[in-house]
Amino acid sequence: MTKLGRPDADSGVGESYVNHGQVGAMGRGAVASNNSFQQLTVDATKSAELAAELERLQKALPREAAGEDVEAIVLAKVEGRHGRWDKALGFLLARGKNILEVAEKEGLKLLVTYLHAKAGLPPG
Length: 124
Prior knowledge:
Number of strands: 2
Helix content: 40-55%
Structural class: mainly alpha
Order of helices and strands: EEHHHHH
Number of helices: 5
Shape: elongated
């Protein structure tokens, strides 16, 4: 979430802008150009299947897995429950290739497909 505030010289009232997603520019006089946004939409019918694959992914992580990997999966599960799969997949990709490798090894085809799409990789 982005929140900006700036006092208004004429009225003494501050401006406030709240953003809950991607934004190129925000606020009075803001300008943006040559931006490229990538957002992934997960079909609602696939949401339960993706959630189940996240559970399997968490169980498949080696016991010695980094705490950050486990945390990324937990955060992804929370975001997924709220239908924010683009953000959920972002948490997983931020951890690097380890999570993707485990998902591929475990045969989590739907999760791997969406991770590849989010990362801009060719279909796995």
